[in-house]
Amino acid sequence: MPDLTGHVALVAGGARGGGRGIAVQLGAAGATVYVTGRSSGSARSGLDRPETIEETASKATEAGGVGIAVQVDHSRPEEVRALAERIAAEQDGRLDALVDSVWGGDPLTDWEHPLWEQDLDTGLRLLRQAVETHVITSRFVLPLLVARGRGLVVEVTDGNTARYRGSFFYDLAKSTVIRLAFAQAAELRPHGVAAVAITPGFLRSEAVLDHFGVTEATWRDAIAQDPHFAYSETPAYLGRAVAHLAADPDVIRKTGRALATWSLYKEYGFTDVDGTQPDFAAHWADALVDEYGPLGDPL
């Protein structure tokens, strides 16, 4: 792991999944990590899942950093403004990385119907939850990075190509997040701040494990249900990719790009928690291209 001692990061949407993996691995690198989201020990979000921001913050501390949980609804500008002000006050204005992993759109995604047969209100709610929250967060947090004249913005998405993702509103949200990184990169570059999007491969999030009826300890039992699951990766793999980006003194050369764990491990040499280096793009080329076509070039 790189050394991020003294660095301060904000992981928005850090209660579970990729956000949790990133927050914990930033902590493992020695960073102070603010972990935000709606899922707290005091109140669950609309997802009604058991994971909380307090758990993630605790794991980041146990890993070697300092985890700080702050319950924030990132769709509410006043709460995000207060978060930015708190970080500035507690860290003497220092923020090195903003990671936006806010999602919460799983129960809002319709995988069965085309746009003209979907419920419009539900689809628009997905966009507000998965896109507007990112815009609101950047609006109030970016001044901390700009003031220091350095830093990194990471927009977490699904896929780094123009390939359609199977559901209209889901595809629009995930591809728009990539564009958010591109647009922020253009505006932040003169200030020495980089902005990238990043995607994991087949992520073994808590929800995915639950879907297959397995745990992280028994995840291989699910390969019988889906052979492609053999090439999945833990949220820690994504987290290690982000930690290396945050520690890269020349990360500005990547600004505006849509990155992936399956390419970054080759550059930085990190592994997943079991010592493997999952490469879902390579698996796609070997096993899925005939059925689904090429994965597509990175945006």
Order of helices and strands: EHEHEHEHEHEHHEHH
Percentage of residues assigned to helices: 40-55%
Q: Reading side by side through the largest sheet, how are the strands ordered?
A: 3-2-1-4-5-6-7
Q: What number is the mean pLDDT?
A: 96
Q: In the residues, how many domains can be counted?
A: 1
Uncertain spans: none
Query: What proportion of the residues form beta strands (DSSP E)?
Result: 5-15%
What's the count of strands? Answer: 7
How many helix segments? Answer: 9
Termini separation comes to 28 Å
**The CATH architecture:** 3-Layer(aba) Sandwich
**Morphology:** globular
Protein name: SDR family NAD(P)-dependent oxidoreductase
Organism: Actinomadura decatromicini
InterPro entries: NAD(P)-bd_dom_sf, SDR_fam
Pfam family, one: adh_short
Q: Would you summarize the structure shown here?
A:
With 299 residues, the chain is of the alpha/beta class.
Question: How would you describe the overall organization of this protein?
Answer:
The protein is an alpha/beta fold and 299 residues long. The protein has nine helices and seven strands. The protein has one domain: Rossmann fold, CATH 3.40.50. The chain is globular and about 55 Å long. The protein is 42% helix and 12% strand. Strands 3-2-1-4-5-6-7 form a seven-stranded parallel β-sheet, with helices on both faces. Helix 1 packs across helix 7, helix 3 runs parallel beside helix 4 and helix 7 packs across helix 8.
